[in-house]
Design a protein that fits this description.
This protein has helices at residues 30-48, 93-103; strands at residues 2-7, 14-17, 63-69, 72-79, 82-89. By secondary structure, the protein is an alpha+beta fold.
Length: 114
Amino acid sequence: MDVDVWVRGRQDAITCTIEGVPENAGQWTEGDVRSLLEQMLIALERAKNPDGDPPPISLRGFSWIVSAEKSGVLVHLEMQMGTVSAGPFAIAEARLTELIARAMGGPKPSTLVH
């Protein structure tokens, strides 16, 4: 699977290949989504430090967004060092949002308006 990586301070984005994430997003589990996020973060780290060893991965310290497009659902991660985007995936936006929230250990998204 390809992801698009932009390192802050550079002019162009690059496309990187990640592995270990099942193709059929509609059947993803929380573990599959955790793997996707981890691989996306590793791709960003490798783009910034191609000769370095990847640091331990923690699913904290970055912003994420799930967005629906005509062709499917995209995942975007943003950190101080840059951004990485993956997709489109054939999965409902709400379902992927829920899986990411659970994979990160956060509260379930609320649909209530306060």
